[in-house]
Design goal:
With 380 residues, the protein is α/β, with parallel strands linked by helices. It contains 16 helices and 13 strands. The protein has two domains: 3-175 and 364-379, 3-Layer(aba) Sandwich (Rossmann fold); 179-361, Rossmann fold (3-Layer(aba) Sandwich), CATH 3.40.50.2000. It has a seven-stranded parallel β-sheet, with helices on both faces. Strands 10-9-8-11-12-13 form a six-stranded parallel β-sheet, sandwiched between helices. α2 packs across α16 (366-379) and α9 (214-226) packs across α14 (334-345).
Length: 380
């Protein structure tokens, strides 16, 4: 179908696709990447509509990207008995009713479910209104909403081979434009200059989500203290918003000419950090796809409370490519982290092989692949 034909189809039907879900950046950003790919393929931005969570980043992030959005009330239901769950269930019922109404009002050709509780409303609405469904799954083990809707989906765009969803097509996980740009045109020297990192040292990047990880932070602070004399390493440590004040108050005094250590609360320029890094220490959520795309070897420490232990599944899938080592959260301490990093940093050839393995496992054009799948399903 040509761009002109797509525009004519949109003019007749108004909204061509609804992207449903979000609540977190990990769910929302891949959907935005696919939406941009659809625009590049000839679909007007006005034909693409998002429905997300009132409490998520959608209300500001989606309009900033050039798309329209409706937000639904509600919050995630806790996996234990809680008074807050009664209110959450009532909000979910209201969201389901409104989601079905939105699907009926927009009459899209296809609904793409991004995951997160907010996606359930439009997903169920699509089933009721007989609108084809595509599921977008970032993790090796599918999330709760995608598992709920999987029997109704025409196709599932998955990031890993063997993800437990039917009619799966391995597209990879769609990347943010800035990550894609770095993957296509790496320039570590410029990235280091921008971040104030030395050009002649091995750079270790540490990050673990916007809030951070106490387990990782404590281990890193211990390693920094032990490495104070090292003149061959620089560490950029993204501590996280929750514990930045407490952790940053304990940064040890480092000798002049020794370890270069940067502590930041939140990394606004993650694409530059990945471009600059020689090795990373991080969790194993959506960031693993950015590590693969940019060819950064990693020590992965899966979050132990992740739903269905999906971070462990992600981490071991990446490690199987040869690009990462996995350390269980319970096993991470100063001694273990120092040992793992020392083994990697002492063997530049191994580190280079790991970086090559990461790049070989990446699917940089995942957004375009997922967009083509959405078009195929919409055409029937």
């Amino acid at each position: 179908m040509t761009a002109e034909e797509k525009a004519e189809e949109t003019a007749e039907s108004g909204t061509w696709v609804i992207f449903a879900g979000g609540g977190t950046a990990g769910h929302l950003l891949p959907g935005l990447s696919v939406a941009r790919a659809l625009v590049e393929a000839g679909h007007p931005a006005s034909s693409i509509h998002f429905v997300g969570a009132e409490r998520g980043p959608e209300s500001t992030t989606v309009p900033a990207a050039g798309f329209t959005v409706d937000v639904l009330p509600g919050r995630g239901i806790q996996r234990r008995l809680s008074a807050a769950n009664l209110s959450a269930v009532l909000d979910l019922v209201r969201a389901l009713v409104r989601g079905a109404r939105l699907v009926r009002a927009h009459r899209p050709s296809v609904v793409v479910v991004l995951g997160g509780y907010a996606s359930a409303a439009c997903g169920i609405g699509a089933v009721i209104c007989r609108v084809p469904l595509v599921l977008l799954e970032q993790n090796k083990k599918a999330g709760a909403v995608n598992r709920l809707l999987r029997r109704f989906a025409k196709a599932s765009a998955v990031s890993f081979e063997g993800t437990d969803l039917p009619r799966s097509v391995v597209t990879g996980n769609p990347l943010r434009p800035e990550i894609r740009a770095v993957a296509d045109r790496p320039d570590p020297g410029a990235a280091r200059a921008e971040l104030g990192l030395p050009l002649d040292r091995t750079v270790v990047a540490v990050f673990s989500g916007s809030l951070g990880s106490r387990r990782i932070n404590e281990a890193v602070m211990g390693v920094v203290e032990r490495w104070g004399h090292r003149d061959d390493i620089a560490v950029r440590h993204v501590i996280g918003r929750r514990d930045f004040g407490e952790v940053s108050s304990r940064i040890p005094a480092l000798p002049e000419g020794g370890l270069v250590y940067q502590a930041v609360e939140y990394e606004e320029r993650m694409h530059l950090l990945l471009d600059a890094a020689d090795v990373a220490v991080t969790r194993a959520g959506g960031s693993v796809f950015e590590l693969m795309a940019t060819g950064v070897p990693a020590v992965l420490v899966p979050l132990p409370i992740a739903t269905r232990d999906h971070q462990a599944a992600n981490a071991h899938a990446v490690a199987a490519t040869g690009g990462a080592v996995v350390v269980d959260d319970a096993d991470l301490d100063v001694d273990r982290l120092e040992r793992e990093l020392d083994q990697l940093l002492a063997d530049p050839e191994r580190l280079a092989r790991m970086g090559e393995a990461m790049r070989a496992a990446a699917t940089v054009d995942a957004a375009e692949r997922a967009a083509r799948l959405v078009e195929d399903v919409a055409r029937g």
